[in-house]
UniProtKB/TrEMBL annotation:
Keywords: Heme, Iron, Membrane, Metal-binding, Monooxygenase, Oxidoreductase, Transmembrane, Transmembrane helix. Gene3D superfamilies: Cytochrome P450. This is Cytochrome P450. Its cofactor is heme. CDD domains: CYP60B-like. It comes from the Eukaryota. InterPro entries: Cyt_P450 (IPR001128), Cyt_P450_CS (IPR017972), Cyt_P450_E_grp-I (IPR002401), Cyt_P450_sf (IPR036396), Cytochrome_P450_monoxygenase (IPR050121). PANTHER family: CYTOCHROME P450, P450, PUTATIVE (EUROFUNG)-RELATED. It comes from Neoarthrinium moseri. GO terms for molecular function: heme binding; iron ion binding; monooxygenase activity; oxidoreductase activity, acting on paired donors, with incorporation or reduction of molecular oxygen. GO terms for biological process: toxin biosynthetic process. Heme binds at residue 446. The keyword Transmembrane applies. The chain crosses the membrane at residues 14-35.
Length: 504
């Protein structure tokens, strides 16, 4: 026998041994997950309890949130969606998972976010969304003034400028109701321009130039890509994620960084105070020694969080209204009887539109901008969540999509019914309104909530005041045809707009 033969034989034996070890490891993991894991008594489908691969696959293909909702329908308010992962639809879970925690394990004031879900790429500097607790509370304090009511009053003329421009463009382009317009894009351009100005001191000129800025496309690509990296990390393949990022993501990030860096440099050169969303961080830049990269990461997150979500809700509300003529009629009646002219419509006056608020809340329920993926990791030895004892190290979450469509929380959960949110509604209802927490709760909840409502009310009021709207045939079943990563992969929402003044 030659040396080569012996080597070949050995290589074959090593490969067989390695394969056998992998199979034994996989089988024992599955047996452990099913029969010995601390979560073994929680209900869920056998495949999800046995391996994380099914959750990871669904997450990366944009269908995970929909599947989890179906599991809740079948198994109840708590479901084991992965071997080490529970999803809850009991509203109490909002407080137990995301709420402030006083005197809890290890002096922790919050249940921490897991790097698996929020820091899938290690090389990208953290921002407010994924910073650790200390850095997060510093950033949050610094930003809070820019999001206060008094700041919003100062920011109103800037917001109104873009809303005016949106309306002007829609009048120019609508061809008196003969040319359908993709409102999903128009909303996105508007919210993007507004937040661009509120962060960088200049808009992305989407409305001005009637074109999508490369950032808009990049933001969504990064969200989709993020779902895949989370899925890989979920399976313990973080090193693969880092390699894929180095090969594919790095050059895209570099291109985007150039855009951000130019805008940021120009923002940092502004002399004196600018009462916008970013001023609080800019002011403390030197005192806290915040690097340019960290500033840039926070600016990116503010633009993403402040544009996508608001545009999504406006699109969802418009679609749902146009698919429910009786609700549209009520809203038209409310808006058109409340104002004599467009000059009366402002952030203060739209606050009084109670039916509009109910419409927006119902849209946030049926089409939540963040469908899922706000997972936290149970600290210490374990915690009680919605009456269940959950072992330390478990991923726990409330998924908006599942919570908002739960038959335990809502009467007719799939029906668009804004009335359920009206306090003076005479109809008896079993709706648990506290189940809707579109902006999350606790120390990491949405800091932009008031801004979002102000922007959405203003834009919707202006549209309803100026136009009659009709959904184009190609935009029927608009929600059902989309995927979520876990932000929506929105498809065009084509609408015919007829100026009210030009109606025969
Ligand atoms: C309908 C509109 C919006 C919805 C539904 C929404 C929803 C949310 C949710 C669910 C979170 C928690 C994320 C987490 O736990 O990881 C969040 C965080 C955040 N949102 Fe919003 N958001 C909206 C609009 C806005 C706007 C207009 C801004 C302004 C820039 C904004 C800025 C932020 C920021 C900075 C955070 C991180 C807060 C922190 O970690 O302390 N959001 N948002």
């Amino acid at each position: 026998m030659t040396i080569l033969d012996t080597l070949g034989q050995n290589a074959g034996q090593y490969a067989t041994a390695a394969l056998t070890l992998i199979v034994i490891w996989q089988v024992s993991t599955i047996i452990y997950n099913l029969y010995f894991h601390p979560l073994r008594d929680f209900p869920g489908p056998v495949l999800s309890r046995a391996s994380g691969i099914f959750w990871a696959y669904r997450h990366s293909t944009g269908v995970q949130a929909f599947h989890t909702q179906k599991l809740h329908d079948k198994y109840g308010t708590v479901v084991r969606v992965g071997p080490n992962h529970l999803s809850f639809t009991d509203p109490q879970a909002w407080k137990d998972i995301y709420g402030h925690r006083i005197g809890s394990v290890g002096n922790m004031t919050e249940m921490p976010k897991s790097p698996v879900f929020v820091r899938s790429i290690k090389n990208i500097p953290p921002s407010i969304i994924n910073a650790d607790r200390e850095e997060h509370s510093m950033l949050r304090r610094a930003l809070s003034h820019g999001f206060s009511d008094s700041s919003m009053r100062e920011q109103e003329p800037l917001i109104a400028k873009y809303v005016d421009l949106l309306l002007q463009r829609l009048h120019q382009k609508c061809d008196r109701g003969n040319e359908p317009l993709n409102l999903e894009t128009w909303y996105n351009w508007t919210t993007f321009d507004v937040v661009g100005d509120l962060v960088f001191g200049q808009s992305f000129q989407c409305l001005e130039k009637v074109r999508t800025h490369p950032w808009v496309a990049f933001i969504f690509q990064s969200v989709k890509y993020g779902a895949t990296t989370v899925a890989l990390n979920y399976l313990g393949l973080s090193p693969v994620t880092q390699i894929i990022f180095k090969i594919g993501g790095l050059s895209a990030i570099k291109t985007m960084r150039k855009y951000i860096n130019d805008l940021l440099t120009s923002r940092l050169s502004v002399k004196g105070d600018r009462n916008d969303l970013f001023e609080g961080i800019v002011k403390r830049r030197e005192e806290w020694n915040i690097s340019f990269e960290r500033l840039s990461a926070n600016a990116f997150i503010l633009v993403l969080a402040g544009s996508e979500t608001t545009a999504t809700t406006l699109s969802g509300a418009t679609y749902l209204l146009l698919s429910h003529p009786e609700a549209l009629e009520k809203l038209q009646e409310e808006v058109r009887s409340s104002f004599r002219s467009v000059d009366d419509i402002n952030i203060n006056s739209v606050n009084k539109l109670s039916y509009m608020l109910a419409v927006l809340n119902e849209a946030l329920r049926l089409y939540p901008p963040v469908t899922s993926s706000l997972a936290r990791e149970v600290p210490g030895k374990g915690e009680h969540i919605a009456g269940h004892y959950v072992a330390g190290g478990t991923f726990v979450e409330v998924q908006h999509w599942a919570m908002n469509h739960s038959k335990e929380n809502w009467t007719d959960p799939w029906t668009f019914d804004p009335e359920r949110f009206l306090a003076d509604s005479k109809t008896p209802s079993d709706n648990k309104l506290e189940a809707l927490q579109a902006f999350s709760v606790g120390p990491r909840n949405c800091i932009g909530r008031n801004l979002a409502y102000a922007e959405m009310r203003l834009i919707l009021a202006r549209l309803i005041f100026d136009f009659d709207m009709k959904l184009a045939d190609d935009s029927k079943r608009w929600i059902e045809r989309q995927k979520a990563f876990p932000l929506w992969d929105r498809i065009p929402l084509n609408v015919y707009l007829t100026p009210v003044a030009s109606r025969p």
